[in-house]
Known about the structure:
By secondary structure, this protein is an alpha+beta fold. It has 13 helices and 13 strands.
Amino acid sequence: xxxxxxxxVGVVTPIGNDIETFWTNLINGVCGIDLIKRFDASRLKVxxxxxxxxxxxxxxxxxxxxxxxxxxxxxxxxxxxxxxxEQSKILExxxxxxxxxxxxGSGIGGINxxxxxxxKLNEKGPEFVSxxxxxxxxxxxxxxxxxxxxxxKGPSLPVVTACATSSHTIGEAYRTIxxxxxxxxxxxxxxxxxxELSMAGFVNCxxxxxxxxxxxxxxxxxxxxxxxxxxEGAGVMVLENYDSAVKRGANILAEVVxxxxxxxxxxxxxxxxxxxxxxxxxxxxxxxSGITDDDEIYVNAHGTGTHLNDAMETKxxxxxxxxxxxxxxxxxxxxxxGHMMGATGAVEAIASVLALKEGIIPPTINYLExxxxxxxxxxxxxxxxxxxxxxxxxxxxFGGHNACVGFKKV
Length: 410
């Protein structure tokens, strides 16, 4: 069995398109949620989203043609992957291309390209549909494009598990390296699904908060919560054989030490109210990580701001940790980024790694009203310093998918 290190991280998010900006805004409680500006939302009941700002694909791609052949979710993934790979310096090592893999998932894939090409089909006819429509639409193509860009010829695996997607890509990459099938994997997730169609669907399944006040949009664990805010972006990390990373003098940010992957088998959208699947996922990650009752722990909670999720997740943490649950440092960074769907697990895993490295717990912002169902320490409103040894990041997706990834301070 091999140990697994994190040697590079990269993000594109509603609160920053690079790690330094993202982390500064995260610990300072900057909210990336605002009124919808991407499109005319006057026909919708929803008013808020969390859009990526000032994203410049020309800084990532060499030619305009490459940009035109890439859906926005692919561009976000490439931006995050480029930062992570450059930070890790993995391509400067002697790693064999056949031992370098890519696991980047997307919950929805190229839906903006799908909408655009359907409009062309209906308005102009079949001959006007782009020949690049299919590779822009399919949700494996971020993995494919990143592998081509960096010459990664090893294990290649996109994952599609809704909001648990990129926690699963990181967890599966961890297992692949741990068991010797690869030496390094570029792992994460990306999503770009802010459009009228997607948001109408989420509104109609009663998932989104309908407030028009950005400070009341994403309210994880707060009694006033009324749904999540749709976000977008990407998060990517480079996972690497620990011994190889040490040997080449890599800057190791954290160690990946545990992973849990379970299913509720309960409902297509609602979580099991008793949290049985989430409990098993968290227990598996905690046990594999070697966490004990004496350890200081940070939990980056799924914390969507929906009534069912937050109450269930609180209950699950109590079932796993018992009385120690009240000593956990918990926060939901979705209060700042919104729910980034297939990217959210990776971005929150990166927040967990940075919390370990810097000894700072990001806050849950706009937290004002306590809920008797949610009575743990959610790090309200302000970041706190803490010498934590372990961090776990949980993600829970439509379809009953549960994932939990454990990290250890180096």
